[in-house]
Design a protein that fits this description.
Ubiquitin-like (UB roll), 2 domains, nine-stranded mixed beta sheet, six-stranded mixed beta sheet, 15 strands
Length: about 400
């Protein structure tokens, strides 16, 4: 497996484009992903009980397991917009389908932005015609910019690998910087592949990959209403169909996991106001639920996040967050490491190389390890520090 350029248009048979249609004042705000051939399709959506009308429409369209296009708008979430929001989302997919000459249910839709505002539907009508004309094999760049909100850079990744002697490609683009916490985050991710893989196997691979990537990131502990991860597989690579349980499925899963994990890490590195990328690894748990609880409780602790943002080796905050996670944690078994340096052993403070710890805390990437000392289960979460800039950005977001 090797990284290549091209993002979502790296796999054969896919085009993309991005334009400004007037949802935002200036920046690009409408993106389109298009498969020249019919593609197997699947998605994972937020578990938030308040969901965007775009999710509801996409969920309906995905019931037949295939798609040709995904239309994405940024600047407006189309959430808490009732019947009108649903009708607007349906109307937009119908306009895209007509412009592309495909079925209405072959078009999926996603949106991101402010909650509680109606989509400026009149602006979509001319915009859809222009974004369709913008489609190209190099349109990944404009598309990845068109889906951004508070992001400071576009997020893309693509890899090429072998399946049964055939070259197969997976490409992706994503967005997200705040309201990041499982299930998923205020994030969107779109994955394309030219692999020939059945809907059942595709859905299984996506769910597994989301559990290993987007379900392991947190910036502020807030779950959004629009989180969506889509995947389209058009089968143009010419490989023998990938089936669940086969060796080829494992190769596909490995490549998909790599792509989604890389996009996940980009989202955390672009967290609103953040200066640090933080990896929290919890080991020695008796159950997977225990290590997951501890990892997220440490990662979501404002006291831990502000300490790390201030490059302060206040490991007591880590110990406190681990102990309050509602998991099986025993003080006399607990050990904490910062940048590989053990700072506590079996619940007790120990002498450690403070200079080495301070050097590590000054780096842009920080590693925290918590050993529960009770079993063999482990779990890793990626998060960011918490700074004054985060407060400023979100206090003025409207």
């Amino acid at each position: 497996m090797r990284e290549i350029s091209g993002g979502i248009t790296a796999p054969s048979g896919f085009k993309a484009g991005g334009i400004h249609c007037g949802i935002k004042k200036r920046e690009k705000d409408l993106a389109l992903i298009y498969s020249e051939n019919e593609a197997s399709a699947s998605a994972v959506f937020t578990k938030n009980k308040v969901q965007s009308a775009s999710i509801k429409v996409s969920g309906e369209h995905l019931q037949h397991g295939r798609a040709r296009a995904v239309i994405v708008s940024s600047g407006n979430a189309n959430t808490c917009t009732g019947v009108r929001g649903y009708k607007d989302a349906k109307a937009i997919t119908a306009l895209v389908a007509k412009a592309l000459g495909t079925g209405k249910e072959d078009v999926l839709i996603a949106s991101t932005g402010i909650i509680g505002r109606f989509l400026p539907i009149a602006k979509f009508k001319p915009g859809i015609g222009r974004v369709v004309k913008s489609l190209s094999c190099t349109g990944n760049v404009s598309a990845s910019r068109a889906i951004m909100t508070t992001d400071t850079f576009p997020k893309e990744k693509a890899v090429k690998f072998k399946v049964g002697g055939k070259d197969v490609t997976i490409g992706a683009m994503g967005k997200g910087a705040g309201m990041i916490c499982p299930s998923m985050a205020t994030m969107l991710c779109f994955v394309t592949t030219d692999a020939l893989i059945g809907r059942s196997a595709l859905s299984k691979a996506l769910k597994t990959s989301v559990d290993r990537s987007f379900h392991r990131i947190t910036v502020d502990g807030d779950m959004s209403t629009n989180d969506s991860v889509f995947i389209l597989a058009n089968g143009t690579a010419g490989n023998r169909e990938i089936r669940s349980g086969a060796r080829a499925f494992g190769e596909f899963q490995k490549a998909l996991d790599y792509v989604t994990c890389e996009i996940s890490k980009m989202i955390v590195k672009d967290a609103e106001g953040a200066k640090k990328f933080i990896e929290i690894s919890v080991t020695g748990g008796r159950s997977q639920n225990d290590v997951r609880k501890v990892a997220f409780n440490v990662a979501n602790s404002n006291l831990v996040k502000t300490a790390l943002g201030g490059e302060n080796a206040n490991w007591g905050r880590i110990a406190s967050a681990a102990g309050s996670a509602g998991a099986n944690v025993q003080e006399k078994k607990l050990s904490i490491f910062i940048g590989g340096v053990r700072v506590t052993k079996n619940g007790d403070s120990i002498n450690y190389d403070s200079r080495k710890v301070k050097r590590h805390l000054k780096s842009e990437e920080i590693k925290i390890s918590v050993d529960l000392g009770l079993g063999k289960k482990s779990y890793t979460v990626w998060t960011s520090d918490l700074t004054e800039d985060y407060v400023k950005i979100n206090a003025g977001y409207s």
